[in-house]
Amino acid sequence: MRHLACLLVAAAIAAAAPVQAQDLAPAAAAVRDRALDDATAWKLVESLTTEVGARPVGSPAMMRARDWGLATLTALGFANVHAEAFTTRAWLRGEESAEVVGPWPQKLQILGLGNSAPTPKGGLTAEIIVFRTYQAMLDQPPGALKGKIAVVTQPMPRTQDASSYGPIGVQRRQGPVEAGKRGAVGYLVRSLATDGTRLPHTGTSAAGGIPAAALAPPDAELLERMAARGKPVTVRLVMNSTLVPAAQAWNVVGEIRGAEKPDEVIVVGGHLDSWDPGTGAIDDATGIAITTAAARLAASAGPPKRTLRVVMWGSEEQGGSSEAYLAAHKDEVSRIVVAGESDLGAGRIWRVSVPAGGWAHPEMRAFAATVAPLGVLTPTAPALQGGSDIEGLIEAGAPFVEFSQDADRYFDLHHSADDTLDKVDPRDLAQNVAVWASFLHLVANSDIDFRALKTAANR
Ligand SMILES: [Zn+2]
Fold this sequence. Notes:
The chain is of the alpha/beta class.
């Protein structure tokens, strides 16, 4: 009897003993190594870019993308595969052209910005006024740009962490509205791009602006040189587009149901829609592929304790999927263990940030040890940005992670005709899958509660 009591006490102590990082690390390392050799993510990027290609929200291609998502998740063995429909505003490109009419006639390479107003039928012709910084245009008083096409040529600096996109991006996002307020009839902006090709980079702009397009970087410099010669330069701009106020869109979902705590959900994904000039490879077929492949690999050694959910958000570029996802899941936010999005191409992950206090937990220490050999830093500073499709969840209180990718080359390609499969490095893609899979495996098989950590950090 005494012996049995001792055993029972020992068993109780074992059950209550805190889990150690070294106990978890071997399984996580096995998932990591399997991911490094796994071709699923590459096959998904190849398939989506080949069989669907560009997939702007509101286009017939987006319907094919939805069907691709449903078929893909089903074929990979996900459960509860379905599409969550919503409506959103969609801007669809029509015929576009721009040319210098005089004094040195030549064609310009442009791409209209999302939400741009169309030009009058037959186009508009006006004198340009060039600003080398966005601020210089903002400094103009109302009426100063009356009847002109405003041209902003401030270049985008290259960064590893994509941190220039926010500050320089304002010239694309708000420029058409601000130029219009000052009397301009058209707006041309140097592409938010770090490459020097003659391919313009599109992107969305705030509603309510004047006809607006992105210039290829060499064409922005061409207009700078023409303006510097001191003679009036005239440009003709032709832009047609269609605005669909309530286009049909879908968030496509699949799950690996948790075996022990199915109601505790880990939400990860990328966005299924893309801009139209390329085939949406790095933006964001790779994010879809990384998270889908990683969730499957995380469960490759057996069903996870918690539910892993992959979401292919359906309208990131023009907005709407974050709001739709929150609206459909607002009652579930308290059960979301953590949310994450992959939406910065396939550059290698160099840093992972978790909610404040997260690295103190054995699961996260095991994760840090697992991904350190892949060149991933795990500083204690908490995650700041989770991704635009999970913004709604984050604002509603869901904890989130931030996987920082090397964005050094991202804006060479982003939103341009060069966003194609050949730019994806399969080894870098696999590194992303390995980091995500290790993380999902550890979180899905643990009791780590980022929700409690978040509350503690906020106190
Ligand atoms: Zn994106």
